[in-house]
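WARN retry 2 of 3 for item q-0093 after timeout on previous attempt; input resubmitted unchanged.
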Amino acid sequence: MGSSSSKTLHPLLKEPWIQIDWEEDRESDLEFLRTYKPRADNQQLRILLHGPVGTGKSSFINSVSSIFQGRVCNKALVNNAAENNGTKKYSTYMFEKESDKKFYPFVINDMIGLDSAGRRNRNIHVKDIKEAMSGHIKDGYTFNPECKISNEDRHFQDCPTDNDKVHVLVCVIDATKATHLKPNVVETIQNSRDEAADLGIPHVAIFTKIDEACPMIRKDVTNVYRSKLLKSKIEKFSKNVGIPLSSIFPVKNYLTERKLNNDVDVLILNTMRHIVEIGDDFLNKK
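OK item q-0093 returned
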């Protein structure tokens, strides 16, 4: 008989299902992002994060900013998990380049998280996502779970430009809860995906807290694409919501760390590169 500890360990695949070069990819992906420029002059690529409350949307923004700044920093406010109140406003985050103090030509928007409230509130949440994707919500708008943004609201954008509109919708999911989402939450994610599809906007997902979801990843982040447990979670989530496996990206956010880590950076930068490439493909089809 094996020991009890051996039974709790989740085995690793012999070969990763996605190949990552942990030595070279950080610099190559960072260079891609540093030099990325949309085809149209003065074009800004907009990425919108959505998903359940407490999944790490703000922490992902902080992690991206930390890598660009070369130090762990907090651009977006992250609430204590016990508070469970999260982001309430529609916020736009820009990232400054260290070299010339200009900004990267892509921004990330954060919005109120989805909870498992009543059907009416969930429908309002989807309508707000549609308005945001269409460019009708200005930075600073405070979401109201009881009603979608009004055309009369001072934060309503009557005539949005291409730069106001969203070019990639990103669902952020807590990997520890990915396979236990309530049916109404799954339905709301699917509905948001349908709205994005109607607008032709690509929809991808980020899996956060992968180190909490799998002991083998907690032991070594480079085990991420060899983890049978994580692969199973991603496959089940993909089947439930309809997001392709190739469009689901696992990351570990910076939370308690005080210094950057190469392997953590690699996953975040790889995710950002793919999101920017997907958004750029959308821009170039227009």
